[in-house]
Design brief:
This protein is mainly β. About 0% of the residues lie in helices and about 60% in strands. Strand 6 and strand 7 form a beta hairpin. The chain is elongated and about 75 Å long.
């Protein structure tokens, strides 16, 4: 006798949902904490409200990258990553934003722990 086929179950979406927590930011002249909410869509191809960049997934890491020129002529490189912990309910969120005008540049970093709310 042949075993019955295993029913198809789509893999649980690791990143999709609402993530919330506090992110600590450090800029060139100050640092501050921000209450942060990140919504990842069901397709796991949109990184919150960020647009115009690329989203890549590798294992338990979802990464966003965008390079663009602002209206005031600044060249901006923005990176964000969401690294899900083994419990699949918490994640480390990091950001890096480099702004360049002519020869001067500044970088702001952010890091925090987010909890999956839904």
């Amino acid at each position: 006798p042949v075993a019955p086929p295993v029913p198809f179950r789509p893999a649980e979406k690791l990143f999709a949902g609402t993530w919330e927590g506090t992110v600590h930011n450090t800029g060139p002249q100050s640092s501050w904490d921000t209450e942060f909410k990140l919504v990842i869509d069901e397709t796991e191809t949109r990184f919150g409200e960020l647009s115009g960049g690329s989203v890549r997934r590798r294992g338990k890491t979802l990464a966003y990258h965008r390079s663009y020129k602002s209206n005031d002529g600044q060249e901006i490189q923005y990176h964000a990553t969401l690294i899900v912990h083994d419990d699949n309910r918490t994640a480390t969120y990091t950001t890096s934003e480099k702004r360049t005008v002519g020869r001067s540049h500044s970088t702001t970093f952010g890091k925090g722990t987010l909890e999956k709310m839904s």
